[in-house]
Structure formats: C-alpha cells, structure tokens
TrEMBL record:
InterPro entries, per the entry: Sec-1-like_dom1, Sec-1-like_dom3a, Sec1-like, Sec1-like_dom2, Sec1-like_sf, VPS33_dom3b
Family the UniProt entry places it in: Belongs to the STXBP/unc-18/SEC1 family.
Protein name per its UniProtKB record: Vacuolar protein sorting-associated protein 33B
Natural source organism: Pieris brassicae
Gene3D superfamilies xrefs: 1.25.40.850, 3.40.50.1910, 3.40.50.2060, Syntaxin Binding Protein 1, Chain A, domain 2
Highest taxon of the lineage: Eukaryota
BP GO terms, sorted: vesicle-mediated transport
Length: 644
C-alpha cells in the first residue's frame, strides 16, 4: 500500500522514538532524566512524559550547572554534542562521586549525546578518571516535520562546528538523516550538490549504503522525490544576511524560535538583547507561545509567506468577519450545534488572531521606521551602487545604533558585495570593540574563517605588487565576483514582478536555492540545466540521471580499488566535466524528466524563512512541490551569534 508522503514524513518521529527506547532500555529503571533546555522542545515532538515514565524514567530535571542532589542514584543526561556542555556534565558527575565514591562501581551514570559521540569524548572521559564509570550513548534523531513541506534536524549548533570551527565530525549525522529519509521515500533520480560540505555528505551517504548492504526501496515503484538539491550555507550568505520582508522572516528576526515554537516575549526580543545600552526589563510571568504550524493554525498558513505590508490588512479582515458573526440570531438547536462544532474552533482562531496581531505590532515597534532605509541600502550593496553612501550608512550604524549581531551583519554584507578597504575595515572593527570590549576580537577571525568577511590586505604590503600590476587591474570594478555570479543566475531582478520570488527581499534579490529549483524544474535537458548553472564553481551532479547519460561513472568497487584522499568521490561528478562531455557528444544529451515533480532541498548550515517563501513561489509557478530540509531554521542574527 502506497501511503501519502505526509504520513511517511510523520512516521520519522516513530523511528526517533524507537532509537530513544533502545537507549533507555540499557539504562535500567528508576532513572533521573536530566535534559538540556535546548533539547526540550525537540524531545516533546518525539515522546511525552507518560512515554518516558513507561520506559524507566522516574524524575525529569532541566540541566543546570548548579543542579544538586536528585531523587535517584541513576542519572541519564540528554545533551547536545557541544564540548563545553559535555565537560559541565562530567564535572557534575565527578562532584556527585566525590560525595559518594561507592557509586563508581554501579555504572549508574549515562550521557545521551545528540546527535552522536565523538572520539575526543572518550579521551576526555579517560582524562577525568571516569572511563567505564560513565556510559556514552549516541542519539541521532530523525528529521522533524515542523510545518507543511518543512523538515528540520533541530541542530542549531551544527553551523558553528562545520563552518566556523571547520569541524566536520557531525556531517555523518546529516548523511544518516538522508539515509533514513530515502528508506522511506526512495532515492531521487537527480542529485545536485553545491559546496564541499554537501559533496562530503553524499560521499558518506554512499558509504552507508554499501556498509549496511541495504539498498533503498524500489525507486520505480515508490519514489516521492524526483530530485535532491543539497547546498552549503556559505554558498549563499546573502540570503542569511539580508533583511527579509516576509512575515515569518521578520518573526525569526525579532523572536526566538525553537523547533517551530515561537516565544512571544515582547519585552526580550532579539533586537533588545543585542543593544549595547539595553535596560533590564521586568520578565513577564505569562508566557505566550505560537506554534508555527499550518496544520494547527490555519491563519498562520495563510499569512506566513506574505509580504509583511499585507499581513495587517489580512488580520484586520479576519477580525471584521468574526465581529460580523451574529450568534444572537441563532435558534436553540442552532446554538447547540454551534457550541458542539464551531465554538472551540472560533475560540482557538480568536486566540491565534490576537497573538499574530501582537507579533505584528512588536515587529513594527522594533523596526522603528528603519526598515525602508535598511532595505534600500542593502539593495544598493547588492547591485554595487553608491559604495561611499553605503559605507557611511554602516559607519553611522556602528556609531549611533550599534547592535551586537546586526551591526556585524551589515559589515559582512558590505564586505561580500562591495568589499571593504583596509582603513574602512579597521575603523568598523575599532568601533565594535570600543562598544562591546576587546574580548570580542576573536569574532572577526571567526567571520573570516566562515567566509562571511573578507579581510583586506594592508596597502603597505601590496604597494610593490600594485606597481607591477596592469592598468586594467587598478581600474574600478563595476561588478564584483558576487554581482558577476548573481547576474548570470538572474538573482538581481531589474524590474518588480508579482510572481518573482525576489519579493522576499523587497524585490532586490532571489535566493540561490530558489534560482536552482527554477532552473531544474523548467529545463528540458541536463545540458540546459548545467549551462544555466555553469557560473557555480562547486556544483556536482549525481543520481540515476547520470547513469542514463552513461558518462563514465565508476562503480564503488572501482573507486575503492583506487582509493585515495583526492579521488574519494563516490556519488557525484563535477558538473563542468559533465557539461564538456555533453557538449562534445550530442547523443548523450537526453531529456531530463523529473517525475514526480517534487524536489527536496537540503541546506547544510540552516535555512531561512525567506528562502522557504521564495521556493513556495517557484513551486506555484512551475506546478511542482518543493520540500525544504535543513539542520535548523535560522536568521541572520543566528548566523552572527554562531560566530560569537
């Protein structure tokens, strides 16, 4: 029996639940379950308190470095794969053992690490004298179905480890999530990979396929995704750095969102927390949470991808409809039917309406009439216009309205799109350090390491080189590398269009992932796809579509027989190599038939709500379906925070 894709995706939570059940079964009964606050919301999507109690958990605690004695001797910690949190747990266990040394023989301490343990963890365990006393477990949960066509692993710390710290230890967890997904949905026929990290993930995925000696389900009979686009976050930083114009995009800029749950705290927004001279507000006793799910909140489903300028008018019209609903004129029987069938729905709708109106009011108050000037400046940066004015705007922002995240964000956008001179760079760095302290000096090294910031060279060091350079090299550049690539991919719309996905950034920019989806879904041949995407350097192609073209794909055994670090590319081939082959032999250039017309987009390093909204436009135009998956849903301020 062929089940709908929505049911298949929902079943992934049962797989996660089974994994957790296997881990808890090894921990015994009467367990004190201590959970890191970051993992509480994701865990609620896997199981409830009742389920935990049925599987050996007695008491549940929130992880705290100052946590004292608990009810039972057996402890199971659930923490993310972050080294400092792991060390904190070990210090806590060592403290307990110092008070009661006899516990070291009972093996009553367990640490469940999401998504996996690493080799360094065992070394640290041994160095602290806790080896064979503390048991380590890996818990790699599956993708969460947060919303309609939105999947997330909810691992917000992965971006920092992979792109900032250059630590790729957790990439196997990304590959495992795809491996599990493809066993449910079938493997796509066409795979496009953009970025070195994405290519590595597909290599690991192929190794899993061979190691476990278990192929994916029959793609001819059950294939839910026709193609897969997997992309590194650093391939399109502009989509993270630009200010979004959609409702959900601005929600994520202002409020904290964890696993699809928005904390509607108007007194402690992201913008207020990042101000240099913010005053301490009284914390609200009443906590309001909005669930960003179109299935449970139909009003959210209607406004989530709309331009923010349209949202208040939609909410106003909904409020008028409720006001005009006259229940006084109903008869007794009609009143009974209303109470039993509609009253609960209307009450929930009113509650959601009030929350969305409050969220809109907070967004307007926080943006403080700066939205128009900000988006206009960003548009000028994208098109390499008015460099002097753009730098002046950023410089004034650093001087009068500096923000711990958003100021860095503007600096990075200017650096990537128009570049910064040596003096401009040092001036902005100095102002930031004067505002927040020289303890943040490391942040700029992190931004450079992640590819968010380009550090200009000293004019003294480049003086001799500049004398030897040609005159053409010293002329002003009308287009930087960013504009050159973006123009070739038609990411910078020159005219406003109602159906353009560029509306997510006020018509100034089309996210790269939306441009790739549009190219894939509107092209008639693989040659056409690769021609249009030729400006992308790290593009690779894989899947059954390559096998059909018969472009000398090596088998896995052939790869392993010639194994080396340089040629270990099991699943995809370089797009430029394939393009040359297709151009030289017209017989190999068959049509590209993506069936079903359903694309899975997987962005490693976090996806933004603006990119999700842009893909929604593409799927409407092309009469297709685009599912978005990532390790988390992030915003520009989240990307900056990962570098701090």
């Amino acid at each position: 029996m062929d089940h709908p894709l929505s049911l298949k995706l929902a079943s992934l939570s049962l797989v996660s639940q089974h994994k957790l059940e296997c881990i808890l079964s090894t921990c015994g009964n009467k367990i004190d379950f201590i959970i890191d606050p970051m993992l509480i919301k994701p865990l609620e999507r896997i199981c409830g308190v009742t389920w935990l109690r049925q599987h050996g958990v007695d008491k549940i605690y929130k992880m705290d470095p100052q946590l004292g004695a608990t009810a039972n001797t057996k402890r199971a910690y659930l923490i993310p794969a972050c080294l400092h949190k792991y060390k904190c747990v070990l210090d806590q266990i060592a403290s307990v053992l110092s008070l009661n040394p006899s516990l070291s023989e009972t093996k009553c301490f367990h640490i469940i690490i999401v998504p996996k343990t690493m080799s360094t963890y065992d070394s640290i365990l041994e160095s602290k004298g806790l080896y064979d006393i503390v048991q380590l477990h890996s818990f790699s949960w599956e993708l969460f179905n947060l919303d309609d066509q939105l999947l997330s692993l909810e691992l917000p710390f992965l971006y920092k480890q992979v792109f900032v710290e250059q630590n790729q230890s957790l990439l196997s967890s990304i590959a495992m999530s795809l491996w599990s997904l493809f066993h449910v949905t079938g493997r796509p026929k066409c795979i496009l990979s953009l970025g070195k990290v994405s290519s590595s993930v597909l290599d690991v995925l192929e190794v899993y396929k061979e190691s476990y000696q278990r192929d994916f389900i029959n793609v001819d009979k059950s294939q839910d995704f026709g193609s897969l686009i997997i992309m590194d976050r650093d391939q399109d930083y502009a989509s993270s750095l630009l200010t979004p114009a959609t409702y959900t995009g601005l929600l994520n800029e202002i409020f904290s969102i964890n696993c699809g749950q928005l904390d509607l705290n108007v007194k402690e927004t992201k913008i207020k927390k990042g101000k240099v001279n913010f005053t301490t507000e009284e914390k609200s006793d009443k906590k309001t949470v909005i669930t960003l799910d179109s299935f449970t909140d139909t009003l959210y489903g209607e406004i989530k991808h709309r331009h923010f300028s349209e949202v208040l008018s939609v909410l106003s019209s909904k409020a008028k409809l409720l006001k005009n609903e006259d229940i006084k004129a109903l008869g007794i029987q009609e009143m009974k039917d209303y109470v039993t069938t509609k009253l609960q729905q209307v009450t929930l709708f009113k509650h959601n309406l009030v929350n969305h109106v409050l969220a809109c009011e907070t967004i307007i108050a926080e943006m403080n009439n700066k939205f128009e000037n900000l988006t206009q400046t960003e548009c000028e940066m994208l098109n390499n216009r008015n460099k002097k004015g753009n730098y002046t705007y950023v410089d004034e922002h650093f001087g009068t309205d500096i923000h711990v995240y958003n100021s860095l964000r503007l600096m990075c956008l200017l650096s990537l799109t128009q570049g910064l001179s040596y003096d401009e760079y040092n001036s902005l760095v100095s102002k930031y350090l004067l505002a927040f302290g020289y303890k943040f000096l490391y942040v700029f090294n992190n931004l450079i390491s992640a590819g968010l910031l380009v550090q200009p060279s000293s004019p003294k060091l480049s003086l001799n080189i500049s004398h030897l350079s040609n005159l053409s090299e010293r002329l002003p550049k009308w287009q930087t590398a960013f504009q050159n690539t973006a123009n070739k991919l038609k990411q910078l719309p020159q005219t406003e269009s109602e159906n353009s996905p560029g509306y997510v950034f006020n018509g100034s920019y089309i996210p790269l992932v939306a441009a790739m989806c549009n190219t894939l879904l509107t092209s008639e041949s693989l040659l056409e796809v690769l021609n249009k995407l030729s400006p992308l350097n790290d593009l690779k192609v894989g899947g059954a579509i390559i096998d059909k073209q018969k472009i000398g794909m090596e088998t896995l055994n052939e790869k392993l027989s010639n194994l080396s670090l340089n040629n270990f590319e099991l699943s995809c081939k370089d797009a430029k190599t394939i393009l040359k082959t297709l151009k030289s032999d017209s017989k190999m250039n068959g049509g590209i038939n993506i069936k079903p017309r359903t694309v899975l987009v997987y962005i490693i390093g976090g996806v933004t709500y603006a990119e999700i909204a842009a893909c929604d436009v593409i799927q409407t135009i092309t009469n297709s379906k685009i599912f978005i998956a990532s390790d988390c849903v992030s915003s520009g301020s989240d990307v900056m925070a990962a570098n701090l």
